[in-house]
Structure formats: structure tokens, C-alpha cells
Amino acid sequence: MLKKVSKATxxxxxxKKAHIRVGTAADAxxxxxxxxxxxxxxxxxxxxxxxxxxATIKAHHVKAVSKKxxxxxxx
Length: 75
What we know:
Oligomer: single chain
């Protein structure tokens, strides 16, 4: 299980960019976006594993899907 990043650490990372204003609920929004990304990554990896007739999700399934999801998230 992944460790949860503390609010103070998250806010300090976001405030390093001086020209960006950070709202009061920005840390919660970042956490929700990460959870949403991980959920979609898990679903797509499961689909990829099912297409290859594999009962378990393996590392190469996640790597193949992550490239596609990152391109879609950035663009």
C-alpha cells in the first residue's frame, strides 16, 4: 500500500512555483486526481490482462497502459 503524503508536504511542493496561486482545497483536489488516475490505471491494466487471457495483472500490463494514459492525461 502506498503511503499518503502529508498536507504540509503537498502544499510546500505546490508552493515552489511562485507564480501559481494555491487555493485552500488544492491539496484535496490533487489527492483526488491521483486516486482517479490510479483507478483508471487499474481498470485499463485489468482490461489489458483480460485481452491477453491472463488471470493476473502483471508489470508489463501496467507499463503498456501507463504510457497510453499519461499521453491522454497530458494532452
